[in-house]
Design brief:
By secondary structure, the protein is mainly β. The protein is built from no helices and eleven strands. The strands form two sheets. Strands 2, 4, 5, 6, 9, 10 and 11 form a seven-stranded mixed beta sheet that branches. It starts with a strand and ends with a strand.
Length: about 120
């Protein structure tokens, strides 16, 4: 019904940058909030950043000033620019979106498949 496809992960050195993208497709009526989560080995998944349909953003303290979340509503696409990357940013990053399906006519939470971000020291 709805699919989130992520791209942009990879291996970078400390201080490097990556730009993650998440494209939503399928039976979409509308998309409300979107966000990025990450999960490091042995740890719980944590919320990294969110963005409302109107563009209001929130970030976990550890990435403030380094990461920027954005969206292109016309393209149903979510982005996150990650600068000054640190080894502790290493994790699988997941796209999340509250999507109103034209099938269910309700907002449900959808997840991307996850993309690996590895920051070497």
């Amino acid at each position: 019904q709805v699919q989130l496809v992520e791209s942009g992960g990879g291996l970078v050195q400390t201080g490097g940058s990556l730009r993650l993208s998440c494209a939503a497709s399928g039976y979409i009526a509308s998309i409300n909030a979107m966000g990025w989560y990450r999960q490091a080995p042995g740890k719980q998944r944590e919320l990294v950043a969110t963005i409302s349909s109107g563009g209001s953003t929130n970030y976990v303290d550890s990435v403030k000033g380094r990461f920027t979340i954005s969206r292109d509503n016309a393209k149903n696409t979510l982005y996150m620019q990650m600068n000054s990357l640190k080894p502790e940013d290493t994790a699988v990053y997941y796209c999340n979106a509250e999507v109103k399906s034209i099938v269910t006519r309700r907002f449900d939470t959808y997840w991307g498949q996850g993309t690996q971000v590895t920051v070497s020291s």
